[in-house]
Amino acid sequence: MIVRREEPADIEGIRAVHTAAFPAPDEGQVPVEVGLVDALRASDAWVPALSLVACEPGNDQLIGHVVCTRASVAGRPALGLGPLGVLPGRQRQGVGSALMHAVLAAADALDFPVVVLLGHPGYYPRFGFRPAAELGIVPPDPSWREAFQARPLAAYTDDVQGEFAYAAPFTEL
Ligand SMILES: CC(C)(COP(=O)(O)OP(=O)(O)OC[C@H]1O[C@@H](n2cnc3c(N)ncnc32)[C@H](O)[C@@H]1OP(=O)(O)O)[C@@H](O)C(=O)NCCC(=O)NCCS
């Protein structure tokens, strides 16, 4: 498997990955994650180095995608992770893990202090995420509780605390 940065020719493949990975709100509709990625890409929150795809060597069909976009913690720069999606037929083969490790390393190399996400508490701790509340990072919605997780990076300092805000397209879902 190869993990690499998104290229212009990947946009349709990324839509296909999230269409297959996430449930649609109604029959005939596409999952909200599909429009979210497109809206993020068109926003100033987009960081091209942090939109990564997974594929097989010599095969352009994408099997997974992850993206981190600019967010904030009490007005300081941070990243929000998501969506992360893997084609259903390719799940549980390490693709999601490969994308997670790669995007966290890329975020670290760009000197962002922390990556924050809303996700399953059984999946993300293996990548160093912990409840964001332990770091004093406050979710926009208090009901998120332990699903709201944060991964400090090398540039993290413990004054990165306060209210977290995702990029605007997340709030327009
Ligand atoms: C979540 C997802 C990206 C994981 O990708 P993947 O390639 O299957 O992940 P990996 O192969 O690296 O890891 C598989 C492990 O993740 C765990 N896992 C996967 N989804 C999980 C979930 N929702 N909750 C808890 N654990 C989960 C499993 O325990 C599995 O381990 P096992 O095979 O030993 O049981 C993929 O299942 C997916 O696209 N799901 C649909 C979209 C989605 O829910 N995205 C995440 C939004 S928070």
Description:
The chain is α+β, with helices and mostly antiparallel strands and 173 residues long. The chain contains four helices and nine strands, in the order E-H-H-E-E-E-H-E-E-E-E-E-H. It has helices spanning 11-21, 32-41, 95-109, 168-171, and strands spanning 2-5, 46-55, 62-73, 76-86, 114-118, 130-131, 137-138, 148-152, 162-165. Strand 3 and strand 4 (76-86) form a beta hairpin. The longest helix has 15 residues, at 95-109. The protein is globular, with a radius of gyration of 15 Å. The structure holds coenzyme A. The site of coenzyme A (COA) has 16 residues, from strand 4 and helix 3.
What does this entry show, briefly?
The protein is α+β, with helices and mostly antiparallel strands and 173 residues long. Helix content is 23%, strand content 32%. The chain is built from four helices and nine strands, in the order E-H-H-E-E-E-H-E-E-E-E-E-H.
Please give the structural blueprint.
Elements: E1 2-5, H1 11-21, H2 32-41, E2 46-55, E3 62-73, E4 76-86, H3 95-109, E5 114-118, E6 130-131, E7 137-138, E8 148-152, E9 162-165, H4 168-171
Parallel strand pairs: 4-5, 7-9
Antiparallel strand pairs: 1-2, 2-3, 3-4, 3-9, 5-8, 6-8
Bound molecules: coenzyme A.
